[in-house]
Specification:
Pathway: Glycan biosynthesis; trehalose biosynthesis
EC number: 3.1.3.12
Cofactor: a divalent metal cation
CATH topology of the largest domain: Rossmann fold
Number of helices: 12
Strand order of the largest sheet: 5-4-3-2-1-10-11-12
Keywords: Hydrolase, Membrane, Stress response, Transmembrane, Transmembrane helix
InterPro entries: HAD-like_sf, HAD-SF_hydro_IIB, HAD_sf, OTSB-like, Trehalose_PPase
Number of strands: 12
Order of helices and strands: HHHHHEHEHEEEHEEHEEHEHEEH
Structural class: alpha/beta
Helix content: 40-55%
CATH architecture of the largest domain: 3-Layer(aba) Sandwich
CATH class of the largest domain: Alpha Beta
Bound molecules: 2-acetamido-2-deoxy-beta-D-glucopyranose, magnesium ion
Largest sheet: 8 strands, mixed
Length: 362
C-alpha cells in the first residue's frame, strides 16, 4: 500500500487541526481514504469474480480493518510523523487543560501497551512499559480496558494497583490493594453480562470445532465475549473463516459480531462497551457529573472508538488514537507506534511525569 499525496495532505490537515490547541478539534472525515478503500474493494471484487469466489460484506470489512501491507513511501510517512504533534508537546497541553482537575488514565492493552504479535498469548508487555504504567498509576487512578479476559490481561500486566476492565469492559474490578485516589465506592466490581456466561461457553466450543480446519485461526475465550484471531490465517482463507463464524452465531440472536485488528469479536448484544466501562469507572471514582476530572483514554482499535465517543459527548477528557496511518476516529489526538518493539506510551508518560514535576516546582 502506497500512501497517496492526498492522504499525506489529509494527514497534514489533521495535524494542523490538532495543533490548533483546541482540546476538541473537529473530526476530519477521511474522505479520500474511504475512496481508496472503495477502489480497493472494487479491485477485490473484480479479483474475486475472476476466481468465481463468493463476495461478502464481512470479508470486505475484515480486509478494510486489517490492512496486510505497510506504508512503504518513506517520504510521505516522514511527513505524517513530522506533522503530528509530539507526545511531549501534547502533554504540555494536557497539563494546561488539567489544571485543578484529577487526571484519570485509561489504557487499552493490545497494540497500545503491547505489540500486536502473531500469537495473542505472547503479547507481552515490556519491562519499560510496565514501569511506565506503574509510575503513571502512582500519580493518577489508572485502568486497563481490554477486549481480553480480565485475568489474562492481569497476568500480562501484573500491577495490582490498577483497575482492570476485561471483556470489552464487561468485567470490571478495582485494585486489589488499597487505593489512595478513590473517593467514591470502595468495592468496584461490575459484570453486566453475567447471565451470558453459559452461552459464551457453548459458542466457544462450537467455534473451536468449526474453525479448527482453517490453518492459523485461533479462538480465544475472554469469558464474557470471544475473539477469533486471524493474524496467522492466509488472506485467501479469510472469507471461509468469516462464513464459519457467521454459521455458528446465526443461532444466537443474543450475540453480535464486531471487528478489530485481525480479529472477529463475538459478544452479547447488551449495550455495554469500553465507553460504558469508562463511565462506570469515573462514577466509581466519584466523578460521575464532575467537571473536576480529565479522563485520558489511549487505544488503537475500533472498540476504543466507543470510549473516544463518550469523551467527545461529555466534552471532557482526551482521546488518543495509537496509529501510524491516518484513520477515521473520534479521538482528538494521535500517537504513533515508533516501531514494532517499542511503544509510544512510555515516552508519552515520561512527558506527563516531567510536566507534573515541573508543575510541582512552580
Ligand atoms: C458499591 O458498588 C457495588 C457494586 O457496584 C454496589 O453493589 C454497592 O451498593 C455500592 N456501595 C455504595 C456504598 O455505594
Ligand atoms: C464518531 O462519532 C460519531 C457520532 O457518535 C459516529 O457517528 C461515528 O461513527 C464515530 N466514528 C468512528 C470512527 O467511530
Ligand atoms: Mg488494542
Amino acid at each position: 500500500m502506497v500512501i497517496s499525496d492526498t492522504q499525506s495532505g489529509l494527514a497534514m490537515a489533521i495535524a494542523v487541526a490538532m495543533t490548533e490547541s483546541a482540546l476538541f478539534p473537529p473530526v476530519v472525515p477521511l474522505v479520500s481514504r474511504n475512496r481508496y478503500f472503495t477502489r480497493k474493494k472494487l479491485l477485490k471484487k473484480l479479483e474475486a469474480n475472476g476466481n468465481g469466489a463468493r463476495i461478502n460484506a464481512l470479508l470486505d470489512s475484515m480486509r478494510a480493518s486489517s490492512p496486510t501491507r505497510r506504508p512503504t513511501d518513506t517520504e510521505d510517512h516522514n511527513s505524517w510523523i513530522l506533522h503530528h504533534p509530539s507526545a511531549l508537546n501534547m502533554f504540555e497541553e494536557i497539563m494546561r487543560a488539567s489544571k485543578g482537575k484529577q487526571i484519570v488514565v485509561f489504557l487499552d492493552y493490545d497494540g497500545t501497551l503491547s505489540p500486536i504479535v502473531e500469537d495473542p498469548d505472547r503479547a507481552f508487555i515490556t519491562t519499560e512499559m510496565r514501569e511506565a504504567v506503574r509510575d503513571v498509576a502512582k500519580l493518577f487512578p489508572t485502568a486497563i480496558v481490554s477486549g481480553r479476559c480480565r485475568a489474562k490481561v492481569y497476568n500480562f500486566v501484573r500491577l495490582s494497583e490498577l483497575y482492570y476492565a476485561g471483556s470489552h469492559g464487561m468485567d470490571i474490578k478495582g485494585p486489589a490493594k488499597g487505593h489512595t485516589h478513590r473517593k467514591g465506592n470502595q468495592t468496584v466490581l461490575c459484570q453486566p453480562a453475567r447471565e451470558f456466561l453459559p452461552m459464551i461457553d457453548e459458542v466457544y466450543k462450537a467455534l473451536m470445532e468449526n474453525v479448527k480446519y482453517i490453518p492459523g485461526a485461533k479462538v480465544e475465550n475472554n469469558k464474557f465475549c470471544l475473539s477469533v484471531h486471524y493474524r496467522c490465517v492466509e488472506e485467501k482463507k479469510w472469507g471461509e473463516l468469516g462464513d464459519q463464524v457467521k454459521l455458528v452465531i446465526k443461532d444466537y440472536p443474543q450475540l453480535r459480531l464486531t471487528q478489530g485488528r485481525k480479529v472477529l469479536e463475538i459478544r452479547p448484544t447488551i449495550k455495554w462497551d469500553k465507553g460504558n466501562a469508562l463511565e462506570f469507572l469515573l462514577e466509581s471514582l466519584g466523578y460521575a457529573e464532575s467537571d473536576d476530572v480529565l479522563p485520558v483514554y489511549i487505544g488503537d482499535d475500533r472498540t476504543d472508538e466507543d470510549a473516544f465517543r463518550v469523551l467527545r459527548e461529555r466534552g471532557q477528557g482526551l482521546g488518543i488514537l495509537v496509529s501510524k496511518t491516518p484513520k477515521e476516529t473520534n479521538a482528538s489526538y494521535s500517537l504513533q507506534e515508533p516501531s514494532e518493539a517499542s511503544y509510544a506510551v512510555p515516552q508519552t508518560f515520561g512527558g506527563v511525569e516531567e510536566a507534573v514535576r515541573t508543575k510541582a516546582l512552580e
